[in-house]
Amino acid sequence: MPPSEISLERLPRHVAIIMDGNGRWAEARGLPRNRGHLAGVESVKDVVRSVHELGMEYLTLYAFSSENWNRPDSEVAELMRLLEIYLAENLDEAEERGVRIRVMGELDRLPDSTRAAVDKAVAATRNNPGGDLIFAISYGGRAEIVDAARRLMRAAEEGTVDPDQLDEKAFAAYLYLPDVPDPDLLVRTGDECRISNFLLWQLAYAEIYTTPVMWPNFRREHLEAAIADYQSRERRFGMTSAQPETESAAAGGGRTGRR
Ligand code: FPP
Q1: Residue nearest (by alpha carbon) to ligand 1 atom 10
Q2: Nearest to 148 by CA among 197, 201, 69
Q3: Residue of the nearest CA to atom 15 in ligand 1?
Q4: Which atom of ligand 1 is nearest to the CA of 214?
Q5: Considering the entire predicted model, what is its pTM?
Q6: Ligand 1 center from residue 22 Cα (angstroms)
Q7: Is 90 assigned a catalytic role?
Q8: What are the backbone angles phi and psi of residue 202, rounded to the nearest 5°?
Q9: Tens digits of per-residue pLDDT, 159-174?
Q10: How many other CB atoms are there within 10 angstroms of residue 195's CB atom?
């Protein structure tokens, strides 16, 4: 693949990735599926470093969906084990780079050892200023929205929220990580073109990029190709091309500075 020309001036601020194709990568090599997940960890490391070196502020990785709990027990156990190992082995590097590790999802469902590894990484990197690395774990977009609605209803019952004052910005404040700007770019690997219950609210205006590259083969050059494609697009947020860029940006900025 030839190197992609990307402008460091117009990088997406937040990239979200659906890491798909681990199982097929392994099966194509006559290997058990879990070997694909193991290989996928190398892609995670490469992409985390690349995002940091390019200077992007937010990276969200779909590491384990609510639906993934329905996979065979051995595969669920391996994914949890890999998460734990990744967090333990890469904590020093996150500290050196000043990266803040965060998580979103139904964390109560995690095994104790995974939860402990998550809590440790989050606590240790809490004050790091060098960009957010967010893992969506046991995450479902619909569950996140229902959870927000439940908490809002309770607040309304208690009288701390006025239903007549509710707008998109007020609702978004009840999502898991309300301070994080919406993704500008969604990348999905593995030759599929679905959102799969990922960040349903936050992806409203994201540019979507899909690639046939299986996740274990995904490296910086593929990320740069996605960014180059993103930079070739015009983001209008429902407006027209004739309207100046500043107006479009303002129209897209519903939560914290969406672009
Ligand atoms: C989808 O591939 C990928 C996952 C369900 C999990 C992604 C996990 C990793 C990359 C490894 C561990 C993660 C971290 C953050 C250290 P699939 O198995 O659905 O692929 P298939 O569609 O080819 O079967």
Answers
A1: 40
A2: 201
A3: 63
A4: 23
A5: 0.93
A6: 5
A7: no
A8: -75, -20
A9: 999 999 999 999 999 9
A10: 15
